[in-house]
């Protein structure tokens, strides 16, 4: 297994102290301001993202990075806010929807290998409708050529433990990305082989 095939999910947690080495800011368009930690990726993933975005641009596809690296402490804040929102909704409506935010330690963003991607037509938001845009379709078709997989595919929610996210790509390296893309396997399924 490659060093980029690390499995992070609700069952395979990263410790609070885990900080990836070789974090760098790729030269790609980002919705976050320069210097923001969410613009960081591990060096290999950053280089691959630059190549992916460069090709997209040459083909008239306007991709934009939204969120890369996220430390444990920030994930903790996001998860706590999601729990509070869910609790308010439960009190108000009696319904408790699934929390889409990963618990601290279970977010791939902490690895520095994950990148949320959007585009101008989506107002740089992270919505399922991204999959229907030219950018979303292009990303789905070409991400694996640059070592990225669409990490949370539609129809695989019970395997990944996360809802469908057509905007969330994860760097695993070209050989594994191509293999997973061709076989339709998730990273969870790959780790069971």
Protein architecture, described:
With 193 residues, the protein is α+β, with helices and mostly antiparallel strands. The chain has six helices and six strands, in the order E-E-H-E-H-E-H-E-H-E-H-H. It has helices spanning 43-58, 72-93, 134-142, 157-160, 174-183, 187-192, and strands spanning 23-24, 41-42, 64-67, 114-118, 148-152, 165-171. The strands form two sheets. It has a four-stranded antiparallel beta sheet. The protein has a two-stranded antiparallel ribbon with strand order 1-2. The longest helix has 22 residues, at 72-93. The chain is globular. The mean pLDDT is 96.
Keywords summarizing the entry:
alpha+beta; about 190 residues; two-stranded antiparallel ribbon; four-stranded antiparallel beta sheet
What is the strand and helix layout of this fold?
Elements: E1 23-24, E2 41-42, H1 43-58, E3 64-67, H2 72-93, E4 114-118, H3 134-142, E5 148-152, H4 157-160, E6 165-171, H5 174-183, H6 187-192
Antiparallel strand pairs: 1-2, 3-4, 4-6, 5-6
Major sheet: size, sense and barrel closure?
Answer: 4 strands, antiparallel
> How many beta strands in the DSSP annotation?
6
Structural class of the secondary structure composition? alpha+beta
How much of the sequence lies in strands comes to: 5-15%
User: What integer value in Å does the Rg equal?
Assistant: 16 Å
| Large-scale geometry | globular
Helix run count: 6
Report helical residue fraction: 25-40%
Mean pLDDT: 96
| Elements, N to C (H/E) | EEHEHEHEHEHH
Instruction: List the uncertain runs.
Output: none
Q: What is the terminal-to-terminal distance?
A: 11 Å
Strand order of the largest sheet: 3-4-6-5
């Amino acid at each position: 297994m490659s060093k980029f095939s690390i499995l992070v999910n609700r069952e395979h947690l990263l410790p609070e102290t885990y900080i990836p080495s070789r974090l760098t800011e790729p030269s790609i368009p980002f919705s976050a301001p320069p210097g923001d930690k969410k613009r960081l990726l591990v060096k290999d993933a950053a280089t691959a993202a630059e190549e992916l975005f460069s090709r997209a641009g040459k083909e008239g596809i306007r991709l934009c990075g939204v969120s890369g690296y996220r430390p444990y402490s920030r994930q903790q804040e996001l998860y706590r806010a999601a729990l509070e929102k869910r609790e308010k909704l439960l009190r108000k409506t009696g319904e408790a929807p699934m929390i889409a935010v990963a618990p601290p330690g279970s977010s791939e963003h902490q690895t520095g290998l994950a990148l949320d991607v959007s585009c101008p037509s989506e107002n740089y938001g992270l919505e399922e409708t991204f999959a229907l845009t030219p950018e979303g379709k292009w990303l789905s078709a070409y991400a694996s050529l640059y070592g990225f997989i669409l990490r949370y595919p539609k129809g695989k929610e019970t395997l990944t433990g996360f809802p469908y996210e057509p905007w969330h790509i994860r760097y695993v390296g070209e050989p594994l990305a191509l293999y997973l893309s061709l076989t339709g396997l998730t990273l969870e399924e790959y780790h069971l082989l």
